[in-house]
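=== RUN LOG ===
request id: a7f3
mode: sequence -> structure
chains: 1
length: 313
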Amino acid sequence: MKTIINTSLSLSILAAAILSTTSCKNNASFKKLKPGIEYKLFETGKGELLKDSSFVKMHIIQKAGDSTFVSTYKQPGEPVLQFIVKGPGIGMDYSELFFKMRAGDSTVIRLNQDSVFKDHKPSFIKKTDEVLVIIKFTEILGKQQRDSLMAEQQKMNAMQQAQKEAQQQQKMKDAAKLMPVEDAKIQAYLKANNIAAQKTNSGLYYAITTPSSGAKPAQGQQVTMNYTGSMLDGTKFDSNVDPSFNHVTPFDFTLGVGQVIPGWDEGIGYFPKGSKGILIIPSYLAYGEQAPPGGKIKPNSILRFDVEVLDIK
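=== RESULT ===
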């Protein structure tokens, strides 16, 4: 599976300084924007305030407790382009705060945790964790700069799309070559281990060992899982039920949106709530040639997952 969310991302020096001087636990240092949204403004910029339809360069960090979800300081590593547009200000929208800011200004925005995550709060986020958005506007761009940058961005997007399509075509060719070879290995493994599994059109195999009358998850639903992943030789590489892997907590993901490897996005859809079973995933539906960090999974490895569907939302 893909890493759930990278909690090791470090804040930039600027963001760290903002957080340290803000003392986020100190309510007196924050002003209330509207219910559930508080902010601390660092007015270090000069010039005019942002206006409706301003085109800006900005850095943004989104985090909860020690977990960082977005950091433009890390990816793409430079300010991103953004239109600032006045809107109706529904729900957790804090865009009205931007019209109090100038180029060079920074802000820390503190959001109500329950309102942000509602019923889909990741299990690793603690009840006491603060949800923060850190923003710095680095530059307000004029029309000529805006048009030039947007043209460059469109050209870059076209190049990236062409590269993505070429890579996808190559993956399909590689999968076509691997499919008969890996299918033979999987069938030999199933026979040797007396596993009665069903094969799908993609080459994935699944076996439901503990049936359930519950509903099957649909694309876009959040699924809560227990799992143990292993190689066909029995070597475990990950588990959320084995204490030796140091994360004994249910795993949540959204089905069918690319948060996990393709074999999971397809395979877990066959398992009703409350069921247990086995997924045998060929390498082209797992990590392929790009083995994940850690060294336990080698390139082009066929993977086995023992899974349990705990809940579907």
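=== NOTES ===
The chain has two domains: 13-146, 188-312.
Residues 188-312 form a domain with the Chitinase A; domain 3 fold (CATH 3.10.50.40).
=== END ===
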